[in-house]
């Protein structure tokens, strides 16, 4: 059998609760109204406070903190508007102030120097003008009294525009930093540490630079410098915000190279030269107009030249006679002076293949006839040896030389020097040992001497 539900007690409880809620609602609506302020920047609410002064204090507190951090700058807050509202709701000022601190951006009173799309910020107009002047003077060298350079014009590739601005304080630069930033396009230089096996060209390739750019960035090294492991190199790719254009006139003293006048002489052998007048360089004063971009010459024009001293030409007589490599068949005495110390034939129980001519050490040895050198060098017992093929069946051999002054393949004239007398190889004293061959057969040199 189902139990009977008792509705009467529940209804009584409900009737007792309704008056309580009605009383609470009536009590809240009777709370006193207070004025609160919605704080806005550019129409966007950043917090709600009970008093305007709370916001002003918060702003001043933040400005004071920034002034301590950046004592050289002044600051101003953005324009703040207040929207009043009468409400019975309570406002938590502490939470609102914290929120305002986070959202409120206080900027420095500064000026920007605009170079087209690029800009840099400094403290004031005075600093801005200093930046522009120092930027220009950066590429105008200090002239010495004796230097003959005249600066015609210094300009920037883009006209700078100076205007007041509100800037994040960390972006406001000193005059020195601003000049460096404009000139380089960066304040941080990229440094490469040399590793084992690296050379300039491979380092340049890593940073998309040329070797010439690396050298410009590091003036203390040369293209043939030996890099050391651990050495630091500047590899910063500079991209100036603006180019400094300098136009100047410079006077320079330059040499005028002398000319060489060659007079042919058919009596002298080809390759022989005789100087009849020495040359001397002249001098001239040249006036140039130079155009430089960021210190580098991009245009150089000659305005005027004045001759100070005319050059003196060098006059030489050049032989045109073609030297024949074919001998005459008549042989000349092969030394300067000297005497026969041993003849061809048997001596000391052995056959002596040539003729010995004794003389003083290092006296000249001469080619006995025209021909071509087929050997010039060391050859065991012969010591320093020269062999000349006379292109007519004859061949001469010169041995025990102190020095050799010809080389293989060289054409020599009869009587020309081929070396000096010595005692090299298997030799008992200073002398020339000379052998003569006719069609490969050893013959007596003295029988063919004319």
Automatic annotation (TrEMBL):
One Pfam family cited in the UniProt record for this chain: LysM
InterPro entries cross-referenced by the UniProt entry: Cell_wall_metabolism_enzyme, Dup_hybrid_motif, G5_dom, LysM, LysM_dom_sf, M23ase_b-sheet_dom
Residue stretches making up the G5 domain: 242-322
Record's keyword terms, sorted: Hydrolase, Signal
Listed CDD domains: LysM (cd00118), M23_peptidase (cd12797)
Organism superkingdom: Bacteria
Presence of keyword Hydrolase: yes
Coiled-coil annotated spans: none
Record GO terms (molecular function): metalloendopeptidase activity
UniProt keyword Hydrolase, yes or no: yes
All copies of domain LysM, residue ranges: 190-235
Official protein name in the record: Murein DD-endopeptidase MepM/ murein hydrolase activator NlpD
């Amino acid at each position: 059998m189902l139990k009977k539900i008792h509705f009467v007690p529940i209804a009584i409880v409900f009737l007792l609760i309704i008056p309580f809620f009605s009383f609470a609602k009536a009590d809240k609506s009777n709370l006193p109204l207070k004025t609160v302020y919605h704080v806005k920047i550019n129409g966007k609410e950043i917090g709600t406070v009970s008093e305007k002064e709370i916001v002003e204090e918060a702003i001043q507190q933040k400005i004071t903190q920034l002034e301590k951090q950046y004592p050289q700058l002044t600051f101003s807050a953005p324009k703040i508007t207040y929207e009043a509202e009468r409400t019975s709701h309570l406002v938590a000022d502490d939470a609102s102030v914290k929120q305002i601190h986070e959202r409120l951006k206080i900027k420095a009173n500064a000026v920007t120097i605009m170079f087209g799309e690029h800009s840099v910020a400094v403290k004031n107009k005075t600093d801005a003008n200093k930046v522009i002047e120092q930027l220009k003077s950066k590429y105008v060298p200090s002239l010495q009294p004796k230097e003959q350079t005249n600066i015609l014009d210094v300009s920037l590739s883009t006209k700078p525009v100076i205007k007041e601005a509100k800037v994040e304080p960390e972006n406001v630069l000193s005059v020195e930093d601003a000049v460096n930033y404009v000139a380089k396009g960066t304040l941080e230089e990229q440094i490469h540490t040399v590793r084992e096996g690296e050379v300039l060209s491979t380092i340049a390739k890593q940073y998309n630079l040329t070797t010439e750019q690396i050298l410009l960035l590091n003036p203390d090294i040369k293209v043939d410098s030996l890099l050391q492991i651990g050495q630091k190199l500047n590899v910063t790719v500079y991209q100036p915000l603006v180019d400094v254009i300098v136009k100047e006139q410079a006077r320079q003293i330059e040499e005028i190279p002398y000319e060489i006048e060659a007079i042919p002489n058919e009596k002298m052998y080809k390759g022989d030269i005789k100087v009849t007048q020495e040359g001397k360089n002249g001098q001239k004063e040249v006036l140039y107009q130079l155009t430089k971009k960021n210190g580098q010459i991009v245009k150089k024009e000659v305005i005027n030249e004045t001759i100070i001293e005319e050059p003196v030409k060098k006059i030489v007589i050049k032989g045109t006679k073609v030297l024949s490599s074919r001998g005459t068949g008549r042989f000349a005495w092969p030394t300067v002076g000297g005497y026969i110390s041993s003849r061809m034939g048997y001596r000391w129980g052995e056959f002596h293949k040539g003729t010995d001519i004794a003389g003083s050490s290092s006296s000249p040895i001469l080619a006995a006839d025209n021909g071509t050198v087929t050997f010039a060098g060391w050859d065991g017992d012969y010591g320093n040896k020269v062999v000349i093929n006379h292109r007519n069946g004859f061949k001469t051999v010169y041995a025990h030389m102190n020095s050799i002054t010809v080389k293989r393949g060289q054409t020599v004239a009869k009587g020309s020097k081929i070396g000096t007398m010595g005692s090299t190889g298997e030799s008992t004293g200073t002398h020339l040992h000379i052998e003569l061959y006719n069609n490969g057969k050893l013959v007596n040199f003295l029988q063919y001497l004319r």
